[in-house]
Amino acid sequence: MTHQPERLFTLARDGELRRADESLELFDADHEWRAAALLTIAWIGAGVKPDQARDLIEKARAVSDVPPLPALREWAVRGPEGIPPGLTDMSGGPGLETILAILARAGGAGTQTGAEPLMIDGVYPPGVFTGTVLARFIAEHDGPPLVSFARLNPAANTTYLRQYIAIHAANRYRYYRNRSLLALLNSILAVPDHEWVRQLVEELIVSALTVTTVDFQDGLPLTVWALRARAGDGAAAASLEAYRTELFARSEQLSSERGKSDSWAHYQRRALALCEAYMTALDRPAEALKLLQRARTLPRGFGGFQAASSLTLAESMRLTVPADTAGIDNCITSALESAHRIQDYPFCFQMTCFVRTMQRHWPALKTLNVDDVVARFVADPQHQEFCPVFVVGELYEFRPDDKNTLPIPEDVRNATTLAAVANICECSEDGLASFNPLVPRGPALSPGTEVRYKDPEFTPLLAARLAMEVLASPMDAERRATLIQKLVPLAASNTTALDTVLSRLLLAAPPVGAIAAPLLGLKLSSWEDGTTPSELILA
Length: 539
Hints:
Blueprint: H1 7-13, H2 17-24, H3 31-45, H4 50-63, H5 69-77, H6 96-107, E1 129-130, E2 133-134, H7 138-152, H8 154-169, H9 174-188, H10 194-209, H11 219-230, H12 234-251, H13 266-280, H14 285-297, H15 303-320, H16 325-340, H17 345-361, H18 370-379, E3 389-391, H19 410-413, H20 418-425, H21 429-435, E4 450-452, H22 458-472, H23 477-491, H24 495-508
Antiparallel strand pairs: 1-2, 3-4
Helix pairs in contact: 1-2, 1-3, 2-3, 3-4, 3-5, 3-10, 4-5, 6-8, 7-8, 7-9, 8-10, 9-10, 11-12, 11-13, 11-24, 13-14, 13-15, 13-24, 14-15, 15-16, 15-17, 15-22, 16-17, 18-23, 20-21, 22-23, 22-24, 23-24
């Protein structure tokens, strides 16, 4: 149920309003979206259970009543067929070119990397910046033209509004995502079309209640293709070659122009997954090097995704060109640059710490005693040795200082005491002090001082790094597979990292017969434009 918020509305349609209300408690929802869900459940079920619907409407008012919730309540109190008074359908509207430009800007990456749902001076109508929050969101500006265009031809044009919703729903920054969706809700509720409004309201609520990340999961099926090709499966070999050819063709069309970059770093990750498969499973280093070079030259996408992908690039280079120490160092620098450019400062801080930790303590150039390291990591993944570090005096030197970049608060930039660092990391000073017994408490810390802190989101990234170290180390296949297998549970909380670790596990010790039966149903995702690869199902 926790992964199926749409079930709330199925229960409401069945008259199970109380069960829907109880099920809503399973979701970690913002107050505004919890209230919106209650109102929509009441709206849908009012015709069957009017008394229960009225109870939910009052409950929603107590949970939150900020705009546009009063407008949604007007729909709910009128039941399944009613329309609030005073609404008039929009006339006129922008042309398709304007809508496509909105979608390209919302989904692409320009000079600034990062999902940017804020209106920034010089780019969008000015907002009022106070502290770390802009008063307005892009969706407030984009919602009316998108809705008016949809209403010109609802059957044909609503798809563009849905694409826009999907772009914001994919934003991994929950605060930005949910505030943007709330701004869209306001525009949608103003349309006097009961069925059209209700469907879109349900979609917005499902998006707000869903834990959404833009995960990469193509590495494992591509690895399976390679293993089947190695075992003599001609169809798998042909499909793999066709996919590689299409990847090169499509990636040549990418550019740094807004909306045309490798937004989620998926093209880079596809090239890297193929690179590792061609190098290890197929023993075709020339093709592997071409794929690696393509991965290195792709235009950058959103900062948070690009930073993590650049770390994976460094790992792939560890396997294919370990002597290229300068190139591997450049990958880490590229990861740091992307981390610094993330607009959302808490995520910028987090990813910067992750990259600094990899750079200082787990560089891809460093040969590790993998047996000992993996044993310690599996025994206690939250030990200081395996936790991220904050480097006092971090300069964020790659972050542009211009009107299109949100500033990092001074208390983050100038965090020089354990108390200040604890405040940023949302932990107690006492706990942070006990975790860093050699770091003095009280006085300002010298620039370069490392402060360890616990963050479980670092664990999957380190699991992927260690999986590559095992894969690249000289040892027998059984020992290699055993070590990587131990890392799988530590990567499980991050779908992209899990895909990477599982791919490297198969490359380390291919199953007998080239492919294990449980993997026969693996599928490849579609390309970013929605078209599918030449073959989707591996079986």
